[in-house]
């Protein structure tokens, strides 16, 4: 028994020795240090984001474009207000890589609009800083910029009103209006019957032409006819002039956004959705309108053939997809081109691009608007004027006077509003005083010019008497006869 106990004690001592020996050897092992690798990728070292967070400053961090680190990098905005954590492309290709022609048109529209706004801002900034000795605030610059834009709207309307009056109201010596270019679906359909190219074009843009066609019908034909049969030509010219100022000053941005929404298929715009609705209705109506021709009858008989029916169904579906894709954008583009062309090139175009004839046409329009009077109804004892006729006579007489000074009235009206706005919203005393004095001087000059060039409006009887007394003028063969023939 004792031998057994001694043997077990020896085993425990040996086991204890082995354990202690192993611990001793482990302590003697030298730890190998890891070799420090070179940071050849220039990767930022990790750091605890919770340390020294309150002492964070933007200048404490590197300004390189490394995105692999996890340090606190403050968000940076570019000139377009975009943050660097959005993942946008920092390469500015100026639209060179785009393949969408719609975006090119939108960029062109925005570039023109932004250029005009930048020009107005630069002029206002120059005036404000010059008169305030570089102490004007940005809000004061914007106040002046508003009336710079208003003034340019008046100048632009002085030219555009002649072009639109020419296509809407002007009649030549034979009492005939200008023969406008036929931009209609009927003409396009007629051309499609003579040429395969026009047939393919009609297949694609037939419903797009609907929009400029209706635009011309209402703006150039229907509305001018309704107005000119009731009011004098002086009133028509004056109202058209002030309407142009209103459009250029208040609705330029809205018109820009509207055309962009049309081009970019923005169906959130209710007007764009209405245009798409018109296109679908016109497409459906094209199947319901019966054309009693031999060609149509043969086509209808052929539909009883199932193969012909399937072919017509497939072609109709393809056409519906095409017109939904192109009709509204092209219709909006055609309307924009139509408005811009007749706003700036109507007179010169219908004068055969002869600048001399176009110059004389401006004079003829002014003379026509002044002399072309509607017959003012003069009541008699047996049949006196009605209340409506009295009102129309009064309005026509008033606008005969206003027409002579419509340009001065537009400027004076603008300057009165500007003077009050400067007095209320400009705090810099030097700038405020200078702008009010300048406006007051211009108002006085305009009033003096109105008095200086005052002449009673010519009556219809006086015009007839002048034509009888004044000998007939021999027309200039070079400038007048060709213009009368073309117009």
Structure commentary:
The chain is mostly helical and 487 residues long. Helices cover 67% and strands 0% of the residues. The chain has 18 helices and no strands. It has helices at 2-28, 101-132, 138-168, 185-192, 196-205, 210-228, 233-250, 252-263, 270-288, 294-302, 306-344, 346-350, 355-371, 387-404, 406-425, 429-452, 460-469, 481-486.
| Strands, total number | 0
Task: Write down the oligomeric state.
Answer: single chain
Count of individual helical segments:
18
What profile does the largest beta sheet have?
none
* End-to-end separation: 143 Å
Question: How much helical structure, as a percent, in the residues?
Answer: 55-70%
Tell me the series of helices and strands, N- to C-terminal. Answer: HHHHHHHHHHHHHHHHHH
Alpha carbon gyration radius? 40 Å
Give the overall pLDDT as a whole number: 75
* Overall geometry: flat
Strand content range:
under 5%
Class per helix and strand makeup? mainly alpha
Task: Note poorly predicted spans.
Answer: 53-73, 292-298, 460-487
